[in-house]
Amino acid sequence: MNAPTLKFEQLGLIGCGLMGGSFALALKKAGLVKRVVGYSKSPSTTERARQMGVIDIEAPSALLAVSGADLVLLAVPVSATEATFKAIRHLLSKDTLVMDVGSTKRDVIDAARRVLKDQVGVFVPAHPIAGKELAGVENADPELYYGRQVILTPIERTEPVQLAKATRLWTALGCQVQTMAPEAHDAAYAAVSHLPHMIAFALMNAIADQEHGKEFLSLAGPGFRDFTRIAASDPSVWRDILVSNREELIAQSRLFQRALRAFEAAIADGNPDAVEALVDKASQARSRWRMNANKPHG
Amino acid sequence: MNAPTLKFEQLGLIGCGLMGGSFALALKKAGLVKRVVGYSKSPSTTERARQMGVIDIEAPSALLAVSGADLVLLAVPVSATEATFKAIRHLLSKDTLVMDVGSTKRDVIDAARRVLKDQVGVFVPAHPIAGKELAGVENADPELYYGRQVILTPIERTEPVQLAKATRLWTALGCQVQTMAPEAHDAAYAAVSHLPHMIAFALMNAIADQEHGKEFLSLAGPGFRDFTRIAASDPSVWRDILVSNREELIAQSRLFQRALRAFEAAIADGNPDAVEALVDKASQARSRWRMNANKPHG
């Protein structure tokens, strides 16, 4: 099959932070876009993005960023999705591919259905499994998405041509694209991302609230560094994710606490064999795990 | 003060795994030792250590590794400490510096007092804050300790000359040496190391035990990778640490679970402001944190 060359005239970027800025840079680096028109809620962010060459033109509103765009990316905290769709819907053409990068998908899709109505087919919900704890356009990186998984969660009304375009786009950026149902996505990421974030946040707070917390922290080493890296994540982004996916998250948290109590019981009993069996199981599961193990091309 | 050159005739290494092997390699690289005589419970480990040049001579017993040594390192799971002291005490001279590398200190010191009795002053309890999830002599690395903190927890009977020797030795390996009370050590590391390990183990088990656990794991990304790295740690080492420091560990686990429930409550209430305040506190604490912030030389 000879697909037409993948090339966009204009990316309308709404949200010029780490995720959005990195997407713009990656697209430019791959030669996939002619111009990037960007909008951020804070004018100083938009200006900084232009100064850095992340975007080419500053738009004074989300609507104007979308005007003339054949590709639109929403890179805003998930709770801002509905308001953003409302702001841009009047200038969305039926040929425009619209995506987001949110870590939860059901709430984003609900917002899209409510606002876009008949136009919802242009929206391809996307979640690139990438990020870093340093937010902001200053940390935008054209390689952020390279080699990562991207989960697309189309609904029955998603237009096949837009889904195909989205798949080609992320593949061209070096990503492994996987399609799954929004519900399955939210359940899986509650377990492997949202819960680990909540745990890391809670651990930091538990230590910080102790009398000797500061001293304890000064003694922490590389294990602690890696374990808590995600605790430095952006508060407004993670506020929205945790609240939005609360049912799955709390269900996963309960399973985790049950597993934690199994450790506590074995430890309190002073039962080394039981403790070793629990650690061994975890250690084997983690040693076997490989990131992107289901990479389509080996 | 003109201290005599720090140089040892013979390191008696008991336990030729990751920690012990890395110590021998670091000592050799720094030119601080003439020969390394090593013993491991498993003869094949000892042989492998010699083949790799980690040790120079294989000893058929812990006692024979110590024979003629002016420096002894115990690098065994902490529960093996007492038996090891019993095996070597008859050949310990009063000039020999004896150290361990255990992650808990009160239990190790109790074992030393019980077995070494009058000789306990030669023992300087040590905990280098270093490691990796790949155990075994194959992963020994002369740089493992470089730039890391080392906590020494002397007791009132520890000989000052041995403590000074230990401090010079670790400093010569590029470590930042800090002295603290064994109780303070065990409380601090329950919070910043033992609890994070137990949490990472419990999370792996909670996911692995679910119906869709395997699928969930295949979707996990770099946040999960770093968060769970410590879950791959050595089961026999961590069995001992968790059991040995159980009181402090369970106390810390309770504080953590209280912090976790604060998140769950705010999330279940659908209260984004409360969730953001909790995340913000954690994110700020983690963003401010620097490893080795109390590095003595800047």
Which key features would you list for this structure?
2 domains; 6-phosphogluconate dehydrogenase C-terminal fold; 298 residues; homodimer; Rossmann fold; 49% helix; alpha/beta
Describe this structure in words.
- Two copies of one chain form a homodimer.
- Chain A has 298 residues and is of the alpha/beta class.
- Chain A folds into two domains: 9-180, Rossmann fold; 185-288, 6-phosphogluconate dehydrogenase C-terminal fold.
- Helices cover 49% and strands 12% of the residues of chain A.
- Chain A contains twelve helices and nine strands.
- A six-stranded parallel sheet of chain A has the order 3-2-1-4-5-6.
- In chain A, helix 7 (182-208) packs across helix 11 and helix 11 (246-268) crosses helix 12 (272-288).
- The mean pLDDT of chain A is 95.
